[in-house]
Amino acid sequence: MQHGALAVLKNVKMSAEETNFLMEYRRLEDLEREKGIKFFQCVGDEPHTQEFVDGITTTRADLITRKECQMREKDQHRFKTEVDSDKVVVDINTSNVIVAKPKWDKFKNDHFFMR
User: DSSP character for 112?
Assistant: First the structure.
């Protein structure tokens, strides 16, 4: 009985959509199978040596020192005051404008509350 059903299914003409679906499905199955075959454990990099860490620390310290020297050099040839660009300037009157209460309705989208 099973052989007869398989023979009937083999003779059934499929539409283009069904054929495309089955081809895509088989392609995805093949990719999954290949992924399982290609899976391996990644061991990563070796732990950093103290020499490597010291090199990074020295490079950072040199960078900071170089930037400080450049800033000092610029300051020696400057003849007018400059605004510190590293700080944010905030208006001192903003405390009157800022309100501590929330500006949203916390029950606006609460469907249980709206029932």
Answer: H
